[in-house]
Amino acid sequence: MKGLIVFDLDGVLADVSRSYRAVVHETSRRFFRLAPRWDELPSRLFSYTELARLKQGGGLNNDWDLTYRVIDLLTSLLGPLSADRHRDPWERFQRTMGRLDLGPLLRFLARWPEPLSELARRPGRRKSPFVSSLCRGEVGGGNLVKQIFQEVYLGAARFTATYGLPPRAYRGRGFLERERLLAPPALLRRLASRHLLAIATGRPEAEARYFLARFGLRSFFRQVLTLEDCQREERRVFRLEGRRVRRSKPHPFLLDALAGRLKARVEGKYYVGDMPDDMQAALRSKKGFRPIGLVQAAPDREAARQRLLQAGAQWVAEDFRELAEAFDVGPDRSSGPG
């Protein structure tokens, strides 16, 4: 009997080390671009290994939230920021950053090789109200950090086509063009011939479908659930119950929704992810999903393996080929999820 195998997208099917991870860094650096002495910032504020470690700590499965966290950590060195009172958020941002003293941040980055880890360890740090004000709402509605992120990720032309807005901070090519495929299409095809495949991702739908179309993968997956599915459920709960809830991972909503739509009987249900929040979503599901980890894209595979196991992974695969073999595509399923 076939199984249901649900995949996360980023870090599982898609190598995002040169796209999303790089966008977090680029957005964080561009956040300070209007400040005096910006050009003295190092070209690399932090390593991708350190960024992965911060994300794998849990609660930051969404890369927008990860970017908010990084910027908040870095600005914590600059003391209370006296925000300008201009009504336009971009003008307020420009005026506030224009009088910022980056000296403490420059000295800190010169001293500490792992700045994010050091800042995250420090007790008593309070979130910056100014930074928080720039991370609320949506693109075009005052969320400047998210807008810079989307401009860098999508590129100028695709950003304007998506949001109907001209870019304000970045006009180059989109980093999404840098993404590579982690899953060999031949293995996915063989998996799809023996099991039911689906995707549950926190990506926006348009970005998920662009990746699948670019690499010719869409036909392998019965269903693809994305960020918009979570948002629709959040709006439904608020409309019916008046409660504001979050249905993104580690909440199991996407997995439960996928299983609820399934008509065929399956032998087992599995969720393959690369983050602790993925493992938690599977464990919290009421539909009996088994959490399976994949560390192929992790900068430090052993550290990632341990975090996934601690988060409840039933098993952790080294790469996609080992994962596929465990699902009886290849000769060895002895250590896998069968």
Short account of what is shown:
The chain has 338 residues and is an alpha/beta fold.
CATH class of the largest domain: Alpha Beta
Number of helices: 16
Strand line-up across the major sheet: 5-4-1-6-7-8
Which runs of at least 5 residues are low in confidence (pLDDT < 50)?
330-334
Average the pLDDT over all residues and give the rounded result. Answer: 92
Mind telling me the CATH superfamily name of the largest domain?
A: HAD superfamily/HAD-like
Overall structural domain count:
2
- Determine the oligomeric state from the structure: single chain
Radius of gyration, in Å, reads 21 Å
- The geometry reads as globular
Q: Please give the number of β-strands.
A: 8
CA distance, first residue to last residue = 12 Å
- Based on secondary structure, the structural category is alpha/beta
- How much of the sequence lies in strands comes to 5-15%
The CATH architecture of the largest domain can be named as 3-Layer(aba) Sandwich
Q: Would you write up a description of this structure?
A:
There is one protein chain. It contains 16 helices and 8 strands. Residues 330-334 have low confidence and may be disordered. The strands form 2 sheets. A 6-stranded parallel beta sheet has the order 5-4-1-6-7-8, with helices on both faces. Strands 2-3 form a two-stranded antiparallel sheet. The chain is of the alpha/beta class and 338 residues long. 45% of the residues lie in helices and 9% in strands. The longest helix is centred in the C-terminal third of the chain and has 15 residues, at 227-241. α1 packs parallel to α3 and α8 (144-154) packs across α9. The protein has 2 domains: 4-15 and 180-326, Rossmann fold; 20-176, no CATH class.
